[in-house]
Amino acid sequence: xxxxxxxxxxxxxxxxxxxxxxxxxxxxxxxxxxxxxxxxxxxxxxxxxxxxxxxxxxxxxxxxxxxxxxxxxxxxxxxxxxxxxxxxxxxxxxxxxxxxxxxxxxxxxxxxxxxxxxxxxxxxxxxxxxxxxxxxxxxxxxxxxxxxxxxxxxxxxxxxxxxxxxxxxxxx
Amino acid sequence: xxxxxxxxxxxxxxxxxxxxxxxxxxxxxxxxxxxxxxxxxxxxxxxxxxxxxxxxxxxxxxxxxxxxxxxxxxxxxxxxxxxxxxxxxxxxxxxxxxxxxxxxxxxxxxxxxxxxxxxxxxxxxxxxxxxxxxxxxxxxxxxxxxxxxxxxxxxxxxxxxxxxxxxxxxxxxxxxxxxxxxxxxxxxxxxxxxxxxxxxxxxxxxxxxxxxxxxxxxxxxxxxxxxxxxxxxxxxxxxxxxxxxxxxxxxxxxxxxxxxxxxxxxxxxxxxxxxxxxxxxxxxxxxxxxxxxxxxxxxxxxxxxxx
Lengths: 172, 307
Fold this sequence. Notes:
The complex is a heterodimer. By secondary structure, chain A is mainly α. Chain A has helices at about 1-20, 20-25, 35-45, 50-65, 70-85, 95-120, 125-170. In chain A, helix 3 (about 35-45) packs antiparallel against helix 4 and helix 6 packs across helix 7 (about 125-170). The longest helix of chain A has about 45 residues, at about 125-170. In chain B, about 40% of the residues lie in helices and about 25% in strands. In chain B, the strands form two sheets. A six-stranded antiparallel barrel of chain B has the order 1-2-5-4-3-12. Chain B: Involved in formation and maintenance of cell shape. Chain B: Belongs to the MreC family.
């Protein structure tokens, strides 16, 4: 229960920040993708199932407010959570290299699929231009933000897990 | 006893493999994507719930952010503003004289209209002010949400303007917020008209052109006599079925001949500064396709259409 409430709050806060503050401090009109960081990190820490649910919920939020087509973002974010969950066995709380690579990869995957789904259909074939001006800058910003946020998210997860263990002991 | 029962049930729930849930949600999502492509659906009740949770938060945080930036700007720009004030005062005088002549001309025009039994060509639109609360979370689509929704009488398809120019169209409505799709969005298409020559063109947004040169693209201009020049103003056309007639879109920036030698395409500098939109006006009249009767009649048919 505590986990669900905390995660919901976390997603809400990230969504609100991403659509307001991040947009006003964006460099060159590109903002980092906080939601993606949370989805990828939690998928990586907690496994496929949780990554999937967090991804689907965040994607649904984005879809409701901004999505070009209802369901597209839900789908993409869900798969990103799931795929990051596959790497759970390589998770060590002190190691930040793999999560950085994973988040950069996820960001590239998300934006490229968005491009393929929406922009190719509109005959915008200049992928390298979009790669240069949107995808790569967002990747770079997101990974930089991850450096600061990753350990906070790990702490948050440890705090929830401690609470869960305590409760489980009490029940026994 | 009770607790252990609960935990057993929890375990059972856990045992549905993630794979199947993933597949299930995937199928649902593909269906909704397909539906929204075909039937243009929106979230329905989800919109309202999400709107009540998130719009107030976004409004608050955006308020704090813009307060801080405006304070910082206050100090920075005082001198600039003073300079500008002097300049603007001069401009006011010259404009005032212009206004007087225009007033006289308008009086004359009205007289002629009366003589010819014509109604006013551009009816005064019923407008409502709104402020921007949040912007698109990805970097692809220039959409934003505003703090007015269906409870303020906003409906899908209403036109949004700011600074006297066209911003976009309401693409989705919740109870206390609505989403605006701007004309610079890649998914936007507007029928425009060049005011000097009355040629119809198709104006479409492009994030690429916007990022590169701050312009949007147009196409299908048929201008064999080369009458259209750079700087001509472009307004929304009467043929558009979504946009009210005569809203300024921008000014022609560049014209090129297409390879078919019949049509021309090029770019338009939009009239609105899309990077700094904070307040917008929503035109509450919906575009009527079909007969244009008196005002009450159109309002009624509006209601029917939306049912």
